[in-house]
Design goal:
Length: 86
């Protein structure tokens, strides 16, 4: 794939089309670590992938607890019975 550096305002940039963005699983606003490979001068872009936010984790936990409420209760009761008999 060949891309051309274009003038964008007072800067220069490379335009990524929708297909390339989809292949890279990238979207507008994503951050990338930019590295220049010394020997070749190649520009390497590595996405900075952040883990889920506290809000997302909390939501996922609530969903699991709601969806598997009965199973979790059975496990808790079984554990109590096991530890009580020891």
């Amino acid at each position: 794939m060949t891309k051309t550096i274009s003038k964008i305002g007072n800067s220069q940039g490379i335009i990524f089309d929708a297909a390339l963005m989809a292949l890279a699983r990238a979207k507008v606003g994503d951050q990338f670590d930019v590295t220049i490979v010394n020997e070749s001068g190649a520009i390497m872009l590595m996405p900075i992938r952040k883990g889920p936010s506290k809000k997302e984790v909390k939501g996922a936990i609530k969903k699991v607890m709601k969806d598997y409420r009965r199973t979790l209760r059975k496990l808790a009761l079984a554990r109590r019975q096991t530890t009580a008999s020891i």
